[in-house]
Automatic annotation (TrEMBL):
Its main location: membrane. Pfam families: LRR_1, LRR_14, LRR_8, LRRNT_2, PK_Tyr_Ser-Thr. GO terms for biological process: defense response; response to other organism. SUPFAM superfamilies: L domain-like, Protein kinase-like (PK-like). It is a single-pass type I membrane protein. This is Protein kinase domain-containing protein. SMART domains: LRR_TYP. Keywords: ATP-binding, Cell membrane, Glycoprotein, Leucine-rich repeat, Membrane, Nucleotide-binding, Receptor, Repeat, Signal, Transferase, Transmembrane, Transmembrane helix. Residues 661-941 form the Protein kinase domain. The chain crosses the membrane at residues 583-609. Residues 1-21 form the signal peptide. It is found in: Cell membrane. The keyword ATP-binding applies.
């Protein structure tokens, strides 16, 4: 490519030379400029007027000619957007005196030695991307050069010694490059030099005493290099110096008193060096000084009185030094002072009153040892009505007393920092007048009282820091008007009350710390507060919400607890306390639980989320709306004309049905009747359920139809119905006999003496429990698939067979009731205390198979905790779901696991199952998963590897 370009250039040369020989009027300048242009890219077409067919280039854009000679004298292409290299075409411009290519995108090294253009007076290549070293001989013929700027490029290497040849040089600007090494000593003998700027390079070495020879020097900038050594006394000979910037180097020693001779000097910048010693009265001689920056050095001693002589002083920065004493009172004469930064010194005494009297813009005294009150200083300032104070930082001193209410008169204040003092009293109401206030920091004082509600009018506030005081009372609601707020720290106070809900308006918040107060109630809503870090709200005993790791007690509705002593005949005994509204309110709590679960097993959460999308209503089975029926009990005697049906074929009741129902063989009693065990003729045991309340049973046809349906249900986890016996006054259901007793006894009455307990173990292992949970889930899923709602789930209805498999009993019996409504259901299953879903009490919520999911959830918690769904203590009722939910939210799940399992369960299985149980007991039915999904979730939770480890305990 390069070769091609090179060949093209040669061809171009040849072409031009041929043309030139044909047309002798064409001058060298056209040739030079066309060749120069050929090396450039000109995306903005700025050089379109440069046409090789022109006789003269004098009218070309950026080209100036000497009117007498018609030769090109100036090429000024600043900001033309040119890129490419600076080519040797320029060497043809023998009469060029000004070359300015500033602010382009030129790259590469300076290949051609434009230094040989002996007429050049000005070279400006600043703000390009030139790189590499400047050729050693670059300046060899630069006798006429007045000004050179290579600033803001990527030049590197040493500044060439040939620079000494530029004897007429007045302006040298090599700033913002990567020049390194020491400056050529010849530079200090260029006594025409008026401006020397080599700032922002990698230069080193000392300032030699030869600097005194630069008697024309007006400006010297050595900022941001690696210069060392002291400032030589001889600098005082540069009597025309107006600006001295030696900042950000490693100069050391004390400043020479000869500086006092620089009487024209208006800018002294010694910032960030290693200077030591005192600033003495000499500084007062510099009567034109406007800016003095002595910051970040090791100056010591007092600021001299003479500084008060400098009336022109506008900015004084003495921060980060070791100045002591107090600022001289003479400074009241510095009428033009605008900015005073004395931060981080060891100044003592009071805040000088003149800082308020002179109308400064910025007063910074942080980290000194100032004492006394601010009040005193402000009070004495007679006329502060035309204040322009924008920044007042007196933080980290030893100030005492109160914040003056006159502070409200500084209406231009943007920054007010009084933190880390011993200020007392309250925050004055007048802060509300500080409409421009951007940052208010009053932290670490002893302020008391409440945050004035006038703060709401400081509409520019972005930072409000009031931490570590004794502030009390409520957070003013008006704070929510401060929509620009980004940082709020009110921690370590005694604030009380609730956080205003409207704080959610503060959409720009980045931090909001109210920890260590006495706040209560719910956190505001919104994206910020939902994800606020817990440490920002911690240590508020009653502040609640997900981020506070504390659920809001008023929000969580209680599950229904029916009075176990109720007779069930009074419809009013069904609690109506759970209104629809409360159920809706609990959604946030549900989401919180869902979110907690995601941490353990994300899959559960996703599954549950999927559930919520589905409509559960379509699967409702038997929610017939009814006004309460009349269920008076009518007892009739046995008619002996009964019908016995065994689904398996041969009815084999050799004995009469009455004899079967022997009291001694009673297995238990449920909502629908008593259950007896009997042995059939073939030696097989069956369980016979005698339905108690006959009037609740439908007609014989209805009864038989429903029972036959139930008889067809065949599932390993359901107790199968083997037959029935019907007379108008007596109905029996004949079930398979399950030998292992019911789950209730296993969980709550288990002893080693009990012969019915599986394998004679003292208690169920985790794997047995998990298996029971899974079995119950499967049975319910099967029932729900057949559109049968169990309605009566409880641990005493779960039988355990000889192999430890659970078998759910008593299903489908609600279908035998002539009418099905809430009241009937809840009175029939009243014994199922604590298992009943809340929607039974809520007339507006349809009852679906989700009520079984609720009961299942309670069962899960019961199986894992070994506790009854509702435990009556001496003077307390403990509701299992609440107890577990509370424990999960406080991260104490372990504590509620059955103690018989302690140390013998895999937490990674048990905890997700607990959470699954909680999700199943969601107050809102549609938030509960369906049983098929429960089975999937259980499958995901169970890790096959842990099977053996926890099986044999
Ligand atoms: C310089 O070039 C860069 C990319 O090469 C471009 O983004 C930038 O705008 C150019 N600058 C000027 C001043 O043309
Ligand atoms: C040197 O050049 C830079 C960049 O063009 C400019 O900002 C700076 O002011 C110049 N220095 C002096 C002393 O003029
Ligand atoms: C004073 O100097 C310090 C350190 O150089 C700097 O951080 C600070 O911004 C300066 N103060 C003012 C008001 O400009
Ligand atoms: C107030 O001053 C202190 C100490 O000087 C400093 O730590 C704090 O950041 C300042 N506050 C603000 C809001 O800038
Ligand atoms: C039920 O009745 C018994 C006996 O009268 C009493 O001790 C118990 O506290 C009652 N339970 C409730 C929940 O009212």
């Amino acid at each position: 490519m390069r070769k091609v370009v090179g060949i093209c250039l040669i061809l171009l040369y040849l072409h031009i030379i041929v043309v030139k020989s044909l047309n002798p009027t064409l001058d060298d300048d056209v040739l030079g400029l066309i060749v120069f242009k050929a090396d450039l890219q000109d995306p903005e077409n700025k050089l379109s007027s440069w046409n090789e067919d022109d006789d003269s280039p004098c009218k070309w854009e950026g080209v100036k000619c000497n009117p007498r000679s018609n030769r090109v004298s100036a090429l000024v292409l600043d900001g033309f957007g040119l890129s490419g290299k600076m080519g040797r075409g320029l060497m043809q411009l023998k009469f060029l005196s000004k070359l300015s290519l500033a602010r382009n995108n030129l790259t590469g090294t300076i290949g051609v030695n434009i230094g040989q253009l002996t007429n050049l007076r000005v070279i400006d290549l600043s703000e390009n991307s030139f790189s590499g070293p400047v050729p050693d001989d670059f300046f060899e013929q630069c006798g006429s050069l007045r000004s050179i700027s290579l600033a803001n490029n990527k030049f590197s290497g040493r500044v060439p010694d040939s620079l000494v040849s530029c004897s007429s040089l007045g302006v040298l600007n090599f700033s913002s490059n990567q020049f390194s090494g020491i400056l050529p000593s010849g530079i200090w003998s260029l006594n025409g030099l008026r401006s020397l700027d080599v700032s922002d390079n990698l230069l080193e070495g000392e300032i030699p005493k030869e600097i005194g020879g630069l008697y024309n020097l007006r400006e010297i900038k050595l900022r941001k290099n690696q210069f060392t050594g002291p400032v030589p006394d001889e600098i005082g000979a540069c009597a025309l110096l107006r600006s001295v910037d030696l900042s950000e180097n490693s100069f050391s020693g004390s400043l020479p008193t000869t500086l006092q001779k620089l009487s024209l000097c208006d800018n002294l910048n010694f910032r960030s060096n290693l200077f030591t010693g005192e600033i003495t009265e000499w500084i007062g001689e510099l009567g034109r000084l406007q800016t003095v920056d002595l910051s970040k050095n090791m100056f010591s001693g007092a600021v001299p009185d003479a500084i008060g002589n400098i009336q022109s002083l506008r900015i004084l920065n003495i921060s980060d030094n070791g100045f002591t004493g107090s600022l001289p009172a003479s400074m009241i004469n510095c009428e033009n002072i605008q900015i005073l930064d004395a931060s981080r010194n060891s100044l003592t005494g009071f805040i000088p009153t003149w800082v308020f009297q002179l109308g400064l813009q910025a007063v910074l005294f942080s980290e000194n040892k100032l004492t006394g009150s601010i009040n005193g200083a402000v009070d004495l300032s007679i006329d502060v009505s035309h204040q322009n104070l924008q920044v007042l930082d007196v933080s980290h001193n030893e100030l005492s007393g109160e914040i003056p209410s006159d502070i409200g008169r500084f209406t231009s204040l943007r920054v007010l920092n009084m933190s880390k003092n011993s200020l007392t009293g309250g925050i004055p109401e007048t802060v509300g007048k500080l409409k421009a206030l951007n940052s208010l920091d009053l932290s670490e004082n002893q302020l008391n009282g409440s945050i004035p509600s006038s703060i709401g009018t400081c509409s520019s506030l972005t930072s409000l820091i009031l931490s570590r005081n004794n502030l009390s009372g409520q957070l003013p609601v008006s704070m929510s008007k401060l929509v620009a707020l980004e940082h709020v720290d009110l921690s370590f106070n005694k604030l009380t009350g609730t956080l205003p809900k409207s704080l959610e308006n503060l959409v720009h918040l980045v931090t909001f710390n109210v920890s260590h107060n006495q706040l209560q109630g719910e956190l505001p809503a919104g994206a910020f507060f939902n994800t606020i870090s817990p440490s920002s709200v911690s240590n508020n005993p009653t502040l609640c919400g997900a981020a506070a790791n504390k659920s809001c007690p008023t929000v969580l509705p209680k599950p229904i607890v029916l009075n176990p002593n109720s007779t069930g005949t009074d419809p009013d005994s069904v609690p109506q306390t759970l209104g629809h509204k409360k159920i809706l309110l609990s959604i946030s709590a549900l989401i919180a639980i869902g979110a907690a679960a995601v941490i353990i097993i994300g899959i559960i959460f996703i599954t549950v989320l999927n559930l919520r999308v589905r409509s559960t209503m379509s699967r409702s089975a038997a929610a017939v709306p009814l006004s309460g029926g009349d269920f008076s009990s009518s007892h009739t005697t046995d008619t002996h004309s009964g019908k016995l049906v065994m689904f398996s074929g041969e009815p084999d009741f050799s004995t009469g049905a009455h004899a079967l129902l022997n009291k001694d063989c009673e297995l238990g009693r449920g909502g629908f009747g008593a259950v007896y065990r009997t042995v059939l003729g073939d030696g097989r045991s069956v369980a016979i359920k005698k339905l108690t309340v006959s009037s609740l049973v439908k007609s014989q046809e209805d009864f038989e139809r429903e029972v036959k349906k139930l008889g067809k249900i065949n599932h390993p986890n359901l107790v199968s119905l083997e037959g029935y016996y019907w007379t108008p006054s007596l109905q029996l259901l004949i079930y398979e006999y399950v030998s292992g007793g019911n789950l209730y006894r296993h969980l709550h009455e288990s002893t080693t003496q009990d012969e019915n307990i599986v394998n004679n173990r003292s208690s169920l292992t985790w794997n047995e429990r998990f298996n029971i949970i899974l079995g119950i889930a499967k049975s319910l899923a099967h029932l729900h698939h057949l559109n049968i709602i169990h309605y009566n789930l409880k641990s005493s209805n779960v039988l355990i067979d000889g192999l430890g498999e659970p078998k759910v009993a008593d299903f489908g019996l609600a279908r035998l009731l002539p009418m099905l409504d809430r009241y009937v259901l809840s009175s029939k299953i009243q014994s199922a205390l604590g298992y009943m879903a809340p929607e039974f009490a809520c007339k507006t919520v349809k009852i679906t198979d989700k009520c079984d999911v609720y009961g299942f959830g309670v069962l899960v918690l019961e199986i894992i905790t070994g506790k009854r769904p509702v435990e009556y203590m001496e003077d307390d009722v403990v509701i299992l779901c609440d107890m577990v939910r509370g424990a999960v939210e406080e991260g104490r799940v372990d504590e509620c696991i059955d103690e018989r399992l302690q140390g013998k369960f895999p937490a990674e299985e048990v905890i997700p199952v607990v959470k699954l149980g909680l999700i199943c007991t969601s107050q809102v039915p549609s938030n509960r998963p369906d049983m098929a999904e429960v089975i999937n979730i259980l499958g995901l939770i169970k890790c096959p590897e842990s099977q053996e480890e926890y099986d044999n305990n």
